[in-house]
Amino acid sequence: MKKSLVHKLCCPIDKSELDLQIFKQDEQGEITDGLFTCTHCKRYYPIIYGLPIMTPDEYREKSLEAPILQHWGLNPSPAEQTFLLEKNNS
Ligand SMILES: [Zn+2]
């Protein structure tokens, strides 16, 4: 996704601002791998293959997202359909 679109996005649940971590960009500077985190509810919204996953909880596939987050070195909460990160103590 284009970086210019980043500031237009907000949390779909509470409309709060999002923090962005970028893990990978292509030659055009577009974000291919990244993670938005809501500053209010702390939900995460990954950017996978350039597409931000910003659907409401009930339409998300946690089992598909979790391995990708782990690949990025993040710790998704083990609770079902809970899109929060665990504190990483390592
Ligand atoms: Zn939120």
Kindly describe this structure:
The chain has 90 residues and is α+β, with helices and mostly antiparallel strands. It has a domain at 3-55. The protein is 11% helix and 26% strand. The chain has one helix and four strands. It has a four-stranded antiparallel sheet, with helices on one face. A hairpin with a 5-residue loop joins strand 2 and strand 3. The radius of gyration is 13 Å and the shape is globular. The chain starts with 17 loop residues before the first strand and ends in a 19-residue tail after the last helix. The chain binds zinc ion.
Hetero groups in this structure are: zinc ion
Structural class assignment? alpha+beta
Most strands sheet: 4 strands, antiparallel
Kindly state the percentage of residues in helix. 10-25%
Residue stretches low in confidence (pLDDT < 50, at least 5 long) are none
Number of helices: 1
Cα separation of the termini: 31 Å
Overall mean pLDDT score? 94
Taking all Cα atoms into account, the compactness measure Rg is 13 Å
Element pattern in H and E: EEEEH
Beta-strand content = 25-35%
* Major β-sheet strand ordering: 1-2-3-4
- In total, the number of strands is 4
Estimate the global geometry from the Cα principal axes. Answer: globular
